[in-house]
């Protein structure tokens, strides 16, 4: 069976019975000029304009386009507009339900149509990040030979989720979240348009503002909530959508966080950077987003343990034990109580004095080792516990520090290649001040720094 098409018959059915489809579908723009937001992609001469123009005798558009953006920003809408504006056969597949078999069927159909001087084919592939590498590979010949014009959509970072050969053959277009003004204009159109609510109800300003907060830049979410609230208001015999009615039908705003996508990394990064910046309130905000989205608490705890060493280190030696204890507690108790433990650790780390000296110290040492400065261990430090070691000069001349009054011996420990390197550069933040004094004293008594 051939994949779904945006056919004239389907459009005619929708026009005859506009109430049979969800409001978000009914209000889908019919032309590129009706598209809300994304003006940076719709300027004259832009790739999308060229793609639309190619169907009416304009210059050829790109052979493959990847649309990357959050949900509800218009990826499917733009694909639909292309289907309406061009004179090309339009086929839609979803990577959730389709596989290589369906892709090959579309490609074979496109080759037959092109070879028989029929219409060229635009293939819209939604959720392309759900395709495996092998499935994405199956698209390459069609894209490279221009058997189809591929318009693929993804909510995940394509540099992580789309194979390099396909990415290099495609034009990547980034869609931005809609602004409140964009969504507001869409809501006003939906309230009055014949395809929408036909002025059946009004939307007071306070309800509109709450609806905008719920939407969070997602047009589909805004229209879905509007449709539900309008239905509830009409069932009550009310002529406008009250704030209480909206709150009744929309229990809570869905958190804009996909724990399987790139926002997983973005929000986690923001949490750690807020802790590093000592902004406890921002850190708690991102922690709450991760918790509310159902993030694995063990993942959060692991990030906190890393932060304790990476950004705090010896400025507060208690930071790492707190983070480790939190990780152990989280593993034992799980959510919802683990939220308290993670909050405890996040606050402690955000407010702790900061030092990245442990991070820079090991980074500098690793750089030297990777650069080939891994010299020979000094003979007096080598193992002398096996037969024949003394004949090799191993462990000869080693001074046992505990035999000396101050517990430190002036002798060489590092290989000759890095003898004068000083990797650890302590700050004087918090408790690390005492380590700064200690390292200065020890280097002096090791003969590496003159008094």
Automatic annotation (TrEMBL):
The UniProt entry, under SUPFAM superfamilies, shows:
P-loop containing nucleoside triphosphate hydrolases, post-AAA+ oligomerization domain-like
Which InterPro entries does this one have? AAA+_ATPase, AAA_assoc_2, AAA_ATPase_RarA/MGS1/WRNIP1, ATPase_AAA_core, DNA_pol3_clamp-load_cplx_C, MgsA_C, P-loop_NTPase
The UniProt GO MF terms for this protein read:
ATP binding; ATP hydrolysis activity; DNA binding; enzyme activator activity; single-stranded DNA helicase activity
CDD domains per the record?
A: AAA, HLD_clamp_RarA
- Give the AAA+ ATPase domain ranges: 61-182
**Which residues fall in a coiled-coil region?**
none
Q: Name one GO biological process term.
A: DNA-templated DNA replication
In terms of Gene3D superfamilies, this protein maps to: 1.10.8.60, 1.20.272.10, DNA polymerase III clamp loader subunits, C-terminal domain (1.10.3710.10), P-loop containing nucleotide triphosphate hydrolases (3.40.50.300)
Q: Does the keyword Nucleotide-binding apply?
A: yes
Q: Which domain of life is it from?
A: Bacteria
Pfam families according to UniProt = AAA (PF00004), AAA_assoc_2 (PF16193), MgsA_C (PF12002)
Keywords in alphabetical order: ATP-binding, Nucleotide-binding
Q: Which PANTHER family match?
A: ATPASE WRNIP1 (PTHR13779:SF7), WERNER HELICASE-INTERACTING PROTEIN 1 FAMILY MEMBER (PTHR13779)
What the record says about family reads:
Belongs to the AAA ATPase family. RarA/MGS1/WRNIP1 subfamily.
Indicate what this protein is called per its UniProt record: Replication-associated recombination protein A
The record lists the organism as: Streptomyces fuscichromogenes
């Amino acid at each position: 069976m051939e994949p779904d098409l945006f056919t004239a018959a389907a459009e005619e059915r929708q026009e005859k019975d506009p109430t049979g489809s969800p409001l978000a579908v009914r209000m889908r723009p019919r032309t590129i000029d009706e598209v809300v937001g994304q003006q940076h992609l719709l300027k004259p001469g832009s790739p999308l304009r060229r793609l639309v123009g190619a169907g009416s005798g304009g210059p050829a558009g790109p052979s493959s386009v990847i649309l990357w953006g959050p949900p509800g920003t218009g990826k499917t809408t733009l694909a639909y507009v292309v289907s309406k504006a061009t004179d090309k056969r339009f086929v839609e597949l979803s990577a959730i339900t389709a596989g290589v078999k369906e892709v090959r069927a579309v490609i074979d159909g496109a080759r037959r149509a092109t070879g028989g001087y029929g219409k060229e084919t635009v293939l819209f592939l939604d959720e392309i990040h759900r395709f495996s590498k092998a499935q994405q590979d199956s698209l390459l010949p069609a894209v490279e030979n221009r058997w189809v014009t591929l318009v693929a959509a993804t909510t995940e970072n394509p540099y992580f989720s789309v194979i390099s050969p396909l990415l290099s053959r495609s034009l990547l277009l980034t869609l931005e979240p809609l602004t409140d003004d964009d969504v507001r204009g869409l809501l006003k159109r939906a309230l009055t348009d014949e395809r929408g609510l036909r002025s059946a109800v009004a939307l007071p300003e306070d309800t509109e503002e709450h609806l905008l907060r719920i939407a969070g830049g997602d047009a589909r979410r805004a229209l879905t909530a509007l449709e539900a609230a309008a239905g509830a208001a009409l069932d009550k015999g009310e002529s406008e959508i009250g704030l209480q009615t909206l709150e009744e039908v929309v229990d809570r705003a869905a958190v804009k966080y996909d724990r399987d996508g790139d926002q997983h990394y973005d929000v986690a990064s923001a949490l750690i950077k807020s802790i590093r910046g000592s902004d406890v309130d921002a850190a708690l905000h991102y922690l709450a987003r991760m918790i509310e989205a159902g993030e694995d608490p063990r993942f959060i705890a692991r990030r906190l343990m890393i932060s304790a060493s990476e950004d705090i280190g010896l400025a507060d030696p208690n930071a790492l034990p707190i983070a480790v204890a939190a990780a152990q507690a989280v593993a034992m108790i799980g959510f919802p109580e683990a939220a308290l433990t993670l909050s405890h650790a996040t606050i402690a780390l955000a407010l702790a004095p900061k030092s990245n000296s442990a991070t820079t110290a090991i980074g500098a040492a690793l750089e030297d080792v990777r650069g080939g400065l891994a010299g020979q261990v000094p003979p007096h430090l080598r193992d002398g516990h096996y037969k024949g070691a003394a004949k090799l000069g191993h462990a000869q001349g080693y001074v046992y520090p505990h035999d000396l009054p101050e517990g430190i011996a002036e002798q060489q420990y590092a290989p000759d290649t890095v003898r004068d390197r000083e990797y650890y550069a302590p700050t004087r933040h918090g408790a690390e001040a005492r380590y700064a004094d200690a390292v200065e004293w020890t280097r002096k008594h090791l003969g590496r720094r003159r008094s």
